[in-house]
């Protein structure tokens, strides 16, 4: 306790509290002063709690402090029964209650500041369910939850950026490097401009380059539009396939259908859908809501340490043991009375589980049937493509050989025709090239005329419209042929389904007998299972009790082993320290100077003397530098002036040489003229 109080006093005397306490003055504080001190510490963690407790009631003070301590996950020492004593001590300002709270808060102030900051935005407000029935309140609550999720994501990104290691020095280096690159680019642009200015018609060339860039951007946009139209065409084909599948299902439902069968089928679908809506879906929705509520509750709570998780696991195991004991007591107490009803309850639960399983199987079967129908459509398309590819046998093979011979003679004739056609193709290709050149010349003339008239691009748009209309007509014809083929396929499939029904009739009769036998065996199995469950419950309770006992003994053994190893390690450390202390004392009191030099004290003494001598030399050197600083600076200034003077003389000399050279050139030119 004294170490705890000393730690509290040290922290309170530091920033930002500066209380100037000692152990005596802190221990002599009254209950009101202790509560005010606790309120000041909480106000440092969360500024909302920086209040004067004399301006509020004691109940409000206790409620405010308990609320913040609960958010900060403070756990008072002791069992759950001591919570009332803790609340009472907090209201009265008891020292045994306030001192541990102050010690816990001052140990982890920065961590608790972060937790309090996050709690302001992540502690969810619980809205009653009856208020959520209002649409406005529900929308506001939804926006509130979305903003909370957005805050979580932003806080995570902020923490990642803080821990990413980006420093201001690196950012400054990057900025300076980018500025250098910018200067280089500016210089390159200026050099290029100077080069371009010397070229003839550079303005026209720049305009042509700009138009080329615009045309490339237009080409990219057109390719993007083309891709989008392809995607739309693909989606339209998918919708067509779904519509064809629905049409097939409707044809299949209409063929060989009677009002009684349709009514029966509708009743079955209504019963199945009503079961899904009234029983299955609400249960699943309720379970999802509960799981989502628990997950939100877990997310809203701050992070838990390993010790908190261990405590929760111990509590869970204790509660499970209590539940097992209560179940055993209940079975022993009410088993003779409710033995008649237990069988019916178990049968009802079994039937409900079977009902749920069959509903899931039915739903899976429907999905499987729809997928198999889609596969059947694909297979029928493939079959139509491959219906002529059959393997010939016997006489058919001879006929096939004769056909091949006739086709061989025909092939030779066609080959000669192909040779003539290729020769003609060369001529036509040359003609096509000439026509293309003439067409390009005409297109250029037409483009020039359109530019003069102000209707550029008119001919290109007209050609595109004609091409699109032709493609649309071809697609419409193809759709008509596809619908005719699908109707014939539906008729064939209906005939095959009727044939399969007649073949399956005797199998269904055998299946009914087997179902009756299965029901009898299922009833016998349920009875045996009831006996097994009752026996297994008793064995499970005994096993859980033994497991708890074994677990407690294992934990006790592990604790004792850890204590043993800790004591051994401490003993070894103390022995090593004692041995080092003995060697140091022996070396220090030894008459041998070599041994005395090995002592740590002598070594540190020598090092101190060396550093003092070094410091003295450095101070002398500093004094010399200070004394010679002024004359040296004056001498450096004189040398700089001398350098400027010599540079000026050099420039004057160079100018004089240039002028004399120019005068000589002029005199020589005059002499040449006189000679001529």
From TrEMBL:
It comes from the Eukaryota. One of its GO terms (biological process) is cell differentiation. GO terms for cellular component: ciliary basal body; intraciliary transport particle B. InterPro entries: IFT81 (IPR029600), IFT81_CH (IPR041146), IFT81_N_sf (IPR043016). Pfam families: IFT81_CH. Keywords: Acetylation, Cell projection, Cilium, Cilium biogenesis/degradation, Coiled coil, Cytoplasm, Cytoskeleton, Differentiation, Phosphoprotein, Spermatogenesis. Residues 137-253, 483-563 form a coiled coil. Residues 367-388 are annotated as: Disordered. Its main location: cytoplasm. It is found in: Cytoplasm, Cytoskeleton, Cilium basal body. The keyword ATP-binding does not apply. GO terms for molecular function: tubulin binding. Residues 3-126 form the IFT81 calponin homology domain. Belongs to the IFT81 family. PANTHER family: INTRAFLAGELLAR TRANSPORT PROTEIN 81 HOMOLOG. Component of the intraflagellar transport (IFT) complex B: together with IFT74, forms a tubulin-binding module that specifically mediates transport of tubulin within the cilium. Binds tubulin via its CH (calponin-homology)-like region. Required for ciliogenesis. Required for proper regulation of SHH signaling. Plays an important role during spermatogenesis by modulating the assembly and elongation of the sperm flagella. This is Intraflagellar transport protein 81 homolog. The gene is Ift81.
């Amino acid at each position: 306790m004294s170490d705890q109080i000393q730690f509290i006093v040290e922290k309170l005397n530091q920033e930002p509290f500066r209380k100037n306490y000692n152990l005596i003055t802190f221990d002599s504080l009254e209950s009101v002063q202790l509560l005010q001190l606790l309120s000041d510490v909480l106000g440092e963690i969360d500024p909302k709690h920086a209040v004067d407790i004399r301006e509020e009631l004691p109940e409000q003070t206790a409620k405010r402090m308990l609320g913040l301590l609960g958010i900060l996950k403070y756990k008072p020492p002791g069992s759950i029964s001591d919570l009332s004593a803790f609340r009472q001590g907090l209201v009265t300002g008891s020292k045994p209650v306030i001192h541990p709270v102050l010690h816990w808060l001052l140990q982890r102030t920065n961590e608790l500041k972060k937790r309090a900051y996050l709690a302001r935005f992540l502690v969810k407000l619980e809205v009653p369910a009856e208020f959520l029935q209002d649409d406005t309140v529900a929308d506001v609550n939804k926006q509130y939850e979305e903003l909370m999720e957005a805050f979580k994501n932003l806080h995570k990104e902020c923490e990642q950026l803080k821990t990413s290691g980006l420093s201001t020095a690196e950012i400054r280096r990057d900025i300076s490097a980018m500025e250098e690159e910018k200067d280089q680019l500016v210089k390159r642009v200026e050099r290029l401009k100077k080069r371009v200015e010397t070229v003839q018609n550079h303005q026209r060339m720049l305009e042509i380059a700009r138009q080329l860039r615009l045309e490339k951007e237009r080409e990219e946009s057109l390719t993007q539009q083309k891709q989008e139209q392809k995607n739309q065409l693909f989606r339209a084909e998918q919708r067509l396939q779904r519509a064809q599948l629905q049409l097939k299902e409707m044809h299949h439902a209409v063929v060989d259908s009677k009002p009684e069968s349709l009514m029966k089928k509708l009743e079955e679908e209504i019963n199945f859908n009503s079961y899904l809506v009234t029983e299955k879906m609400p249960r699943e929705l309720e379970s999802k809501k509960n799981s989502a509520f628990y997950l939100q509750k877990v997310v809203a709570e701050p992070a838990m340490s390993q010790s908190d998780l261990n405590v929760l696991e111990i509590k869970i195991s204790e509660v499970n043991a209590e539940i097992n004991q209560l179940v055993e007591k209940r079975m022993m107490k009410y088993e003779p009375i409710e033995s008649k009803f237990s069988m019916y309850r178990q049968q009802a639960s079994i039937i409900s589980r079977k009902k749920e399983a069959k509903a899931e199987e039915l739903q899976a079967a429907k999905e499987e049937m729809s997928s198999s129908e889609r596969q059947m459509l694909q297979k029928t398309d493939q079959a139509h493509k491959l219906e002529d590819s059959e393997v010939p046998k016997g006489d058919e093979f001879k006929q096939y050989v004769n056909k091949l011979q006739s086709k061989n003679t025909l092939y030779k004739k066609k080959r000669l025709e192909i040779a003539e056609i290729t020769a003609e193709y060369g001529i036509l290709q040359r003609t096509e090239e000439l026509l293309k050149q003439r067409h390009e010349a005409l297109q250029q003339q037409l483009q020039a005329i359109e530019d003069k008239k102000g209707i550029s691009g008119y001919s290109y748009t007209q050609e595109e419209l004609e091409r699109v209309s032709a493609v649309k007509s071809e697609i419409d014809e193809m759709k008509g042929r596809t619908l005719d083929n699908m109707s014939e396929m539906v008729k064939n499939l209906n005939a095959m389904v009727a044939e399969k029904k007649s073949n399956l009739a005797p199998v269904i009769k055998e299946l009914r007998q087997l179902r009756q036998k299965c029901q009898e065996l299922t009833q016998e199995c349920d009875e045996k299972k009831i006996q097994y469950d009752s026996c297994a419950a008793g064995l499970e309770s005994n096993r859980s009790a033994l497991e708890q006992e074994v677990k407690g003994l294992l934990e006790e053994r592990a604790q004792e082993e850890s204590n043993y190893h800790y004591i051994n390690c401490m003993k070894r450390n103390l022995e090593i320290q004692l041995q080092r202390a003995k060697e140091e004392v022996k070396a220090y009191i030894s008459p041998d100077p070599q041994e005395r030099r090995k002592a740590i004290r002598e070594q540190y003494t020598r090092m101190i003397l060396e550093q003092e001598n070094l410091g003295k030399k450095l101070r002398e050197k500093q004094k010399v530098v200070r004394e010679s600083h002024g004359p040296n600076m004056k001498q450096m200034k004189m040398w700089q002036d001398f350098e400027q003077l010599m540079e000026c003389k050099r420039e004057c000399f160079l100018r004089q040489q240039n002028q004399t050279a120019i005068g000589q050139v002029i005199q020589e030119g005059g002499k040449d003229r006189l000679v001529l």
